[in-house]
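User: Structure with adenosine-5'-triphosphate, tokens only please.
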Amino acid sequence: MTLTSSSSSAISSAPETILAIDFGTSHSLVGALHNGQRIDSLAIDPSSSDPTLMRTLLYFPTPDRCFYGADALKKYTEFEMEGRLFRSFKSHLPNKFYLGTVFENRILSLENMIGLFLLELKKRAEAVLKTKVTKAVIGRPARYSMDPAADEFAIHRMKKAAEYAGFTDIKFVPEPLAAALEFRRGIHQDKLILIGDFGGGTSDFTIMKITPNEFQKEDVLAVDGCPLAGDALDSVFMSSRLNRTFGAQTKYRLPMSSNLMTMPVSVMDKLNKPAQIVHLKERDTYEFIKEVRKCALREEDKQAIDRLFILLEDQQIFAFFEEIEKTKKNLSEKPTSAFKFDYPDLETSEVFSSVEFEDWSENVKTEILSALDRCLAQAGVEDSQIEHVFLTGGTAHVPFIQNEFIGRFGAEKMQTKNFFHSILSGLIESAKSWDQLGG
Ligand SMILES: Nc1ncnc2c1ncn2[C@@H]1O[C@H](COP(=O)(O)OP(=O)(O)OP(=O)(O)O)[C@@H](O)[C@H]1O
Ligand SMILES: [Mg+2]
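Assistant:
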């Protein structure tokens, strides 16, 4: 089946307006195909420094009120961090143990949370476009999870969320395929290209042939990816250093037991991850940590756990991870960066170097590169055969990621462009072939 990128028959059979939604772990963008015409990124978040980029944030000051994107952050500060702020919730999609959360009397399933966010994107886009829309092309990562069943589950939940938002016709397009559609727009000769999209939650790869002819599905030789990217890199600052100040190395002994225990990995895993840490507040876990504090052998560990309680109780989790992210971004520019957190009783001052950041990120890097190797193997292509390498997504700024590609493919093949808008642009392109897209 041919997937045309510009065929007039595909355009004429296209519905009037199709929204293209890049629902990202960190940022979301919306564009449209309106009567066959591309409408690039819509200004969906006027309060944001780039109004076309909306941070994927939900803030409930009370169970019945919700703010989105830049407003979520503004109101969170205004209401003195009361209520619940959710970030990176896209990454829960493949997790069958994460059904959602309960906020006072309101049950918020993950599908509801994502649905509310998509509904807001839809409403804002409709206001800009001055038309109602029920059709949408929505991006999805190559792999929400390495487990195929979990991947299926994630897409099932995304569909429910999109229906909740009021979309009646929905097509999911792999984000790496969207990237490929975007990058082929600028090349008109036969070329073999590799695209890497490094976002907040996932890293995706595509290998495709570009020909001067119309785009065919068969041009895409392989698509692969893994659920590790920018958030995983933020985590390494916690897991490698900062979590010690919150009791990660606590040793304790339960009453009547001779076993020496350490803070369980399951608890630490939550503490280290920006999407998970908020769940330390759930009653069972919270009570368990209190027990650990009681039974901790060293005074300094008790104090560290007290700091953890302040972090959780005083709603400082989001701010702490924002500071980590800032430090990480600085390390894309400079060899060292200061991490400074001034909240009373949580004061932290450290200097991190890009060398230690790279060192701590070794496992994440290895996983990401394994996905690249799988993609090359699946395509049956050697590194030397790749003619252009396009890197996109916010995490493509990280020097040690870029250097891997320069080292493997050569600096002359590298093309980095359009860090945040290329997936959206490709999704709009894919909407031109609505009838040929899978469900
Ligand atoms: N200068 C920078 N250096 C390092 N990382 C950066 C930089 N700028 C942005 N990032 C990281 O890029 C990530 C966001 O990228 P992007 O907006 O492409 O992700 P996303 O599309 O929301 O996520 P996904 O596609 O995985 O769902 C964040 O983890 C952010 O910290
Ligand atoms: Mg993305």
